[in-house]
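Schema walk-through. Below, the input block comes first and the output block second. Nothing else is stored per chain. Lengths vary across the set, and this one has 95 residues.
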Amino acid sequence: MIQAKEKGFGIKLEDIDVAEKIALIHSEISEAFEAYRHKNIDGKDGLKEELGDAIQRILHLCGIFDIDIEESILKKISYNKERTWDWDNMSEKHS
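--- output ---
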């Protein structure tokens, strides 16, 4: 949250527009996809950089909401261990 404060990105809920922050996360993910499509992995505005941008924005939002993201991820991993998907009714690829 230090960088958010220094850059004026807001450090309290009343300082930000949550919908805008989520849209900006989506934007960074879209930029990562475009970088991948153009085989730009390591370069300026490449996949790695854009994923880093997305994670920074996500962590900023976690800080605003006082979310322990490590705990949330570990809970989700645990839940997904027992979860099943009906791949026959989904259009995405899987292994």
